[in-house]
Amino acid sequence: GETGSGKSTLLKMIAGLIQPDGGSIYFDGIKVLGPLEQLLPGHAQIAYLSQHFELRNNYRIEELLEMSNMVSNDLAETIFSICRISQLLKRKNDELSGGEKQRIALAKCLITAPRLLLLDEPFSNLDRVHKNIIQSVIEDIGTRLGITCMLVSHDATDALSWADRVIIMKEGSIIQEGTPKQLYYHPLTEYTAALMGEYNLIDTNLHPGFIALLGESVKGKRAMLRPEQFLIVDNNERSLSGIVEQVLFYGSHYMIHVKADGLSIKIRTNTYLYNPGDSVNIGLSYIG
C-alpha cells in the first residue's frame, strides 16, 4: 500500500506492540495481547524488525548477538550464514554499512527463535546490491528455517517473486488480497494495478477500437492490461493499427509507446525493432 495506508500499524498490532481499537488478533489460536493487556509489549514467538532499527554502539557484533541468542550454536551459525554476516562478527557497529547493519538486526531477531517474522519496509533506503541480498535472505529464511515471514512495502513488486499471498491496503482497509499472479493480472482497482507495476487503462467507451482486440465482453467497460500483454504483430482481423510515439530502453527490455485509436499504449518487448513514427499493428498476448 501507499504511504499512510496503515501497513506498519497493522504489523505492530500483530506483534502486540500497538493496542487495536477493536477486534482481536490470534496467533496459532491464542489471542495476541496488546500493550494495555500485559506489562511488557510484544509476543515471545513473534519477532518484529522496524525500519528504524538500532544496534548498540561500542560492542563487537558477536557480543551483541550473544546477548540475544536463544538457539543452539549450530543453528545460530546457520542463521548467520543465511543473513550473510559470518564475516562481520568481529567488527563493531560503526564499521558497518547500512545494509550490513540491517542483516545483523535481522539475525538478532532470528536467534530469538520466532515462529513468525514481521519486517517493516525492509527494502527502504537500500541500494540495488543490498536490496538483492536482503531479498535472497528473506527467501532463505522461509525455505531453510521454515519461519513464516510477513513484510510491508509500498512497492508490491518487492514481494512478487517469493510471496504466497499479497494484501493490498488503502486508508486503513484491506481492499484486495490473493496470490501475486492474481493481483498482478487481475487488479480490481487502478490503485492495485499501479502498486503492482506498469499498466494500461483502456476505456472502451472512449476507445471502441480496442473492442475488436479485447473481445465483445469488454464493450462499455474499462480494462487494465500490463505492457507485456500486448504484442506488435502482423496486420490481421484481431489487430489494431497504431503509430510508435516513443521507445525507452530499460536495460533488460524496451518500453514502446504506441498511439492506437487515440490512446497511448505501453508495450514491453525485448528487441529494438521500431522507431518513433513507425506504423505498427498491436495484438494481444494471452499471458495472465
CATH architecture designation of the largest domain: 3-Layer(aba) Sandwich
What string, H for helix and E for strand, traces the elements in order?
HEEEHHHEHEEEHHEHEEEEEE
C-alpha Rg (nearest Å): 24 Å
Unreliable stretches, pLDDT < 50, 5 or more residues? none
Could you name the CATH homologous superfamily of the largest domain? P-loop containing nucleotide triphosphate hydrolases
Share in helix: 25-40%
Number of self-contained structural domains: 2
* Shape label: elongated
Topology-level CATH name of the largest domain: Rossmann fold
Q: Please tally the β strands and state the result.
A: 14
The top-level CATH class of the largest domain is: Alpha Beta
Number of helices: 8
Largest sheet: 5 strands, antiparallel
End-to-end Cα distance, whole Å, is 22 Å
Assembly category? single chain
How much of the residues is beta strand, in percent? 15-25%
| Average pLDDT reading | 91
Strand order across the biggest sheet?
A: 10-14-11-12-13
Short description:
This protein is an alpha+beta fold and 288 residues long.
Protein architecture, described:
The chain is α+β, with helices and mostly antiparallel strands. The protein folds into 2 domains: about 5-155, P-loop containing nucleotide triphosphate hydrolases (Rossmann fold, 3-Layer(aba) Sandwich), CATH 3.40.50; about 200-285, OB fold (Dihydrolipoamide Acetyltransferase, E2P), CATH 2.40.50.140. Helices cover about 25% and strands about 25% of the residues. Strands 10-14-11-12-13 form a 5-stranded antiparallel sheet. Strands 3-4-5 form a 3-stranded parallel sheet, sandwiched between helices. Strands 1-2 form a two-stranded antiparallel sheet. The longest helix has 18 residues, at about 130-145. The two termini are about 20 Å apart.
